[in-house]
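2024-03-11 09:14:02 INFO queue: dequeued item MarR family transcriptional regulator, len=153
2024-03-11 09:14:02 INFO validating residues
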Amino acid sequence: MLENESAEPPHPTKDVTHHVGYLLKRTQAALRGAMDKVLREHGLTVPQYATLELLALHPGMSNADLARATFVTRQSGNVVLRALQEAGLITRPATADHGRARPAHLTEEGNARLTAVQAAVYAIEQRMVEAIPAQRLAVLLADLDRMATALEE
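2024-03-11 09:14:37 INFO prediction written
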């Protein structure tokens, strides 16, 4: 492509603020801001909260699995796990039984902290999804999943 040629947008609008990617990022930023505010009151960050949620559903996940699931690097995931462990919210063995993975588990305090904050976080998501007609939610979720899959290929 020549330097002075401009690419055609993937849909009719020329205003970047109406592009799918821009609107997805705007939504993500608004969600993150709302979650940050609520979680701060409970002494948690978004990655820490996500880690607690995942460990409640899948006890024993490794740092690598948690990092992938919470969209952070393994190094950042390890920082998150160390902070949760120091706060007494999770436990991990000092050494791995085999390989390098040290499975993490919620402590009683971790479960209590998660329970204390879930209603506030779920209320944020409820506010977000109430902005669209209920009968369109399943379609939106399927479309978002297809878009993510298309970019992962």
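2024-03-11 09:14:37 INFO annotate: The radius of gyration is 19 Å.
2024-03-11 09:14:38 INFO item closed
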